[in-house]
Write a structure and sequence with these properties.
26 strands; 514 residues; 10-stranded antiparallel β-sheet; 4-stranded antiparallel β-sheet; alpha+beta; T-fold; single chain
Length: 514
């Protein structure tokens, strides 16, 4: 058995567009190692309800294959215990009981015990019974109105009840309420860390596991991690921070990707269990910690707590560093955050108070064009296809590559339409290396890209006709090419493209300008 070396990666050549390849520190280590382990990379959709990007450092194909198998088996095993979305999981079966001491696995006892501790540490800001409040908001949003005060008060009263009792000696858990529960917050970080350690146990020298923006780096590997700007959350948007991570976890939470849209207003899906209100004062929180659970728990809690409360809480967690982006554009940092942030990306002066402005407003682009695409996910968990999205002018000359998602440059010929232009091929060479992106969790297979009307060199294009191309090729699958003309300088226009076997839905939205 050989592990695939043809995953989805981001290779792009201008600021704000990500290139994924072996990082410089990893290559330096490989050059001096006797066995010369190599990075094996793979990507999947529909893993824990989102996407998985996996890098395994291994001395052979067989070791890499064994490590990848161990990672996927670890995900499956933990999901069968902890998933609230699978009615057959151990958690779901236990949650359906009432006032009965149920024998429980080590993992379920451990996770519920961690929720007990984090509920106490955050004064109730983290609570799995917040699902009760979330359902009230979801139902109200379906009716196009915000929940009533009475509905929220009832939900909060249900949250405040005790929900379980753990007998660690007997390894049993008793369900004490009927309030709906869901194990979000740090549970994904817990599962991701266990998967990373499974790869090392299977023989990998190093591993990077990125599930929907929650990242764990373990073993002999140093990873460059970009943090997505919550004010520009497209897949090719410029990051607001770049981090150097070794043997740590990175978690990002925020309500900018998911939530409730009611009467033209967006409400975060992150809800304060103590008040029943969506947490809107924080756009995102990113935490780096040696302990993955600490990273995930703090990132979620910081979206609920005040900045001052977050600073105090993080000071009690060994090794935790964080950055919080507030709704008004201020940035709150831990004292040593800038020690792990790249000066090339970090243009913010060191904070002199609790919060400082993290970035000046970006210059308004000449126009705004957005490309959305939803990749096919056949049969549940599946490897992702290779994809290129780019713009050409009326003379068929390459203007700008918006996204290039491949394994390695050797697989560029699979994207034959993009690859035919020498200028396009050159765009993938000598690019900035950024391995992983930490962001709020997004739905699997769904991507949004933007074009601001500049070419590959950053110069504004002239008015006229341009063509947006979307090309997809799946290993042992089909080849697809989509195109749509756009009149730069013309009227605003939205076009839904006909889906195919690899890109089930796509659209081009030109909002006018120039």
């Amino acid at each position: 058995m050989t592990v695939s070396t043809r995953p989805l990666h981001f290779i792009q050549s201008i600021p704000g567009l990500f290139c994924v390849a072996a990082c410089a520190a990893g290559l330096a280590w490989l050059a001096t190692a006797g066995v010369r382990p190599q990075p094996y990379v793979s990507s999947f959709d529909n893993v824990l309800g989102t996407s998985l990007d996996l890098t395994i450092l291994a001395a052979s194909d067989d070791v890499a294959a064994a490590a990848e198998t161990a990672v996927l088996a670890s995900f499956d095993r933990d999901a069968s215990v902890l998933s609230a979305y699978d009615p057959s999981s151990e958690f779901s079966r236990w949650a359906a009981t009432q006032d009965v001491a149920v024998p429980a696995s080590t993992e379920l006892v451990e996770v519920l015990g961690l929720f007990d501790r984090w509920r106490e540490r955050t004064s109730g800001a983290l609570d799995p019974s917040v699902e009760r409040v979330s359902r009230v908001w979801a139902a109200a949003a379906g009716l196009g109105a915000v929940p009533s005060t009475v509905e929220l008060e009832r939900a909060v009263a249900d949250v405040r009840q005790p929900h379980w009792r753990i007998d660690a000696d007997a390894a049993t858990i008793t369900r004490l309420s009927t309030t709906p529960l869901i194990l979000n917050s740090f549970t994904k970080s817990y599962i991701v860390d266990r998967a990373a350690r499974a790869a090392l146990s299977a023989g990998a020298s190093g591993v990077v596991v990125n599930v929907g923006g929650d990242i764990v780096v373990r073993g002999d590997w140093t990873e460059q991690v970009a943090v997505r700007d919550p004010r520009a959350p497209t897949d090719n948007g410029a990051p607001f921070a770049q981090l150097t991570i070794r043997d740590r976890a990175v978690a990002t939470s925020g309500g900018y990707r998911r939530g409730f849209d009611i009467a033209g207003r967006h409400y975060s899906h992150i809800v304060d269990p103590r008040t029943g209100q969506p947490a809107g004062h924080v756009l995102s929180a990113t935490v780096v910690s040696p302990n993955a659970v600490d990273a995930g728990a703090l990132a979620t809690a910081m979206c609920v707590l005040t900045p001052e409360e977050s600073v105090r809480l993080a000071s009690m967690v060994p090794g935790a560093e964080f950055v919080i982006v507030l709704a008004d554009g201020r940035r709150v940092e831990s004292a040593r955050w800038q020690a792990i942030e790249s000066p090339a990306i970090n243009a913010t002066p060191a904070p002199t108070a609790v919060a400082t402005l993290y970035a000046a407003e970006q210059a308004k682009p000449a126009f705004d064009l957005t490309v959305t695409l939803d990749l096919a996910r056949p049969g549940g968990r599946a490897r992702r296809p290779y994809v290129a999205v780019w713009v050409e002018d009326k003379d068929h000359r390459h203007v700008r590559t918006l996204a290039l998602w491949i394994a390695r440059p050797r697989w560029l010929p699979d994207l034959r339409a993009w690859n035919r232009a020498d200028r396009a091929r050159a765009a993938a060479e000598g690019t900035e290396i950024v391995r992983s992106v930490s962001s709020a969790t997004r739905a699997p297979g769904q991507h949004t890209l933007s074009w601001d009307g500049t070419n590959q060199e950053g110069r504004a294009v002239a008015t006229g006709t341009y063509t947006v191309f979307i090309e997809a090729a799946r290993e042992h699958g089909t080849y697809q090419l989509m195109r749509q003309d756009v009149e730069v300088g013309g009227a605003a226009r939205h076009v839904d493209l006909t889906g195919n076997a690899e890109v089930i839905a796509a659209s081009v939205d030109y909002k006018g300008g120039r």
